[in-house]
Amino acid sequence: MRLDKFLARTGFGTRREVKILVKSKAIQVNDVVVKDSSMHIKETTDQVSVYGEIVKYKEFIYLMLNKPVGVVSATEDSRDRTVIELLDVDVHHFEPYPVGRLDKDTVGLLLLTNDGALTHRLLSPNKDVPKVYFARVEGIVDEIDIQAFVDGVTLDDGYKTKPAILNILSKGEVSEIELSITEGKFHQVKRMFESVGKKVIYLKRLSMGALKLDESLMEGSYRELTEEELESIQ
């Protein structure tokens, strides 16, 4: 990899800014001062330092975000604040993006990464990766709804959903439930309940596959996945 590309990917600025660092004799490769920012290096074995600080190369980033209400699951949007705007600038050079999406008014677990292969595995319809949600629903959710979700319900556009597992936590004028689905249709959870005559008034994603939301994360906060979490979804 070209040195300037390597440093750009590790957050040391644009290629033009890297050239300025070279002119300042700030960069060394294997303890030798660099004279040409276009030189090629082996990113996994060569030792690169800037002002004496060793630069560690990392190709991918994996972030767990507790998405708050009011932001959209997109990399850019002309009207609304995006989840990317919640991230510190020091991770922007990785160009992370949300894996799937949560509605603007839905909170909870959202994975952001730049790993295309992992994204494909998690979102592929053939993989049937379960996603678990907690919801508050207007109306009494009962065993009839449980069976309807197991059988698959027909949405307003005529699409019949795959089997889903509905667990009732409490019944009342507002019921609390957990729902596990393996799809990600637009507004799917809300539309599923609308198909049985009920309305979701609060929705939070708790997990995606083996990855579970860290409940210690405040809404709007994020952290990198641990090695164990990453291995669980690979």
Automatic annotation (TrEMBL):
Coiled coil: none
Organism annotation: Psychrobacillus glaciei
EC number: 5.4.99.-
Entry keyword annotation includes RNA-binding: yes
Enzyme class, broadest EC rank: isomerase
Family, similarity comment: Belongs to the pseudouridine synthase RsuA family.
Record keywords: Isomerase, RNA-binding
Name of the molecule in the record: Pseudouridine synthase
CDD domains: PseudoU_synth_RsuA, S4
Lineage: Bacteria, Bacillati, Bacillota, Bacilli, Bacillales
Segments forming domain RNA-binding S4: 1-59
Stored InterPro entries: PsdUridine_s_RsuA/RluB/E/F_cat, PsdUridine_synth_cat_dom_sf, PsdUridine_synth_RsuA/RluA, PsdUridine_synth_RsuA/RluB/E/F, PsdUridine_synth_RsuA/RluB_CS, RsuA_PseudoU_synthase, S4_RNA-bd, S4_RNA-bd_sf
Alphabetized GO MF terms: RNA binding; rRNA pseudouridine synthase activity
UniProt cross-references to Pfam families, sorted A to Z: PseudoU_synth_2, S4
GO biological process terms, semicolon-separated: enzyme-directed rRNA pseudouridine synthesis
Transmembrane segments: none
NCBIfam families xrefs: pseudouridine synthase
Entry GO CC: cytosol
